[in-house]
Amino acid sequence: MAFLHISCMSNEKTYTTFGDFYPYYLTEHARPANRTLHFVGTGLVIACFVTALALQKYWLIALMPLCGYGFAWFGHFILEKNRPATFKYPLYSLGSDFVMFWHILTGQINRKVDEAHKIIGVENKWK
């Protein structure tokens, strides 16, 4: 009996460095409302961590994933309508959350998002 083997080839690029991943990450966060939700979530993660250390209330650390992922996943599933990159690239995504937080805080985000779309070669439909 012969068996048919079907290979599923993915067109999705595999990222092996953070520098290559971050532009892709930004294209997946093109909608400003999604970036705002990520900014709030990451800000709450930082606040939980600092408060836990300052007040020695270490149970607050347990809230960090809820704050970060809750806001981010709402932004992806409801607003951006894409799959969060954290499922495939958890560490790169976590690092990217903090880099994007910094880029928003310092007013660099729009330029960075524009540059990312050029690097990845996709149109920014939210511009």
Report on the structure:
- This protein has 5 helices and no strands.
- The protein has one domain.
- It has helices at 18-27, 32-55, 63-80, 90-105, 109-120.
- 63% of the residues lie in helices and 0% in strands.
- The protein has 127 residues and is an all-alpha fold.
- The chain starts with 17 loop residues before the first helix and ends in a 7-residue tail after the last helix.
- The longest helix has 24 residues, at 32-55.
- Helix 1 packs across helix 5.
Beta content = under 5%
Percentage of residues in helical conformation: 55-70%
Number of strands: 0
- Low-pLDDT runs: 1-10
Q: Main sheet, how many strands, which sense, barrel?
A: none
The termini sit apart by: 55 Å
Mean pLDDT: 90
Radius of gyration: 17 Å
Task: Give the key terms.
127 residues, mainly alpha, 5 helices
Topology:
Blueprint: H1 18-27, H2 32-55, H3 63-80, H4 90-105, H5 109-120
Helix pairs in contact: 1-4, 1-5, 2-3, 2-4
In summary, what is this structure?
With 127 residues, the chain is mainly α. The protein is built from five helices and no strands. The chain is elongated.
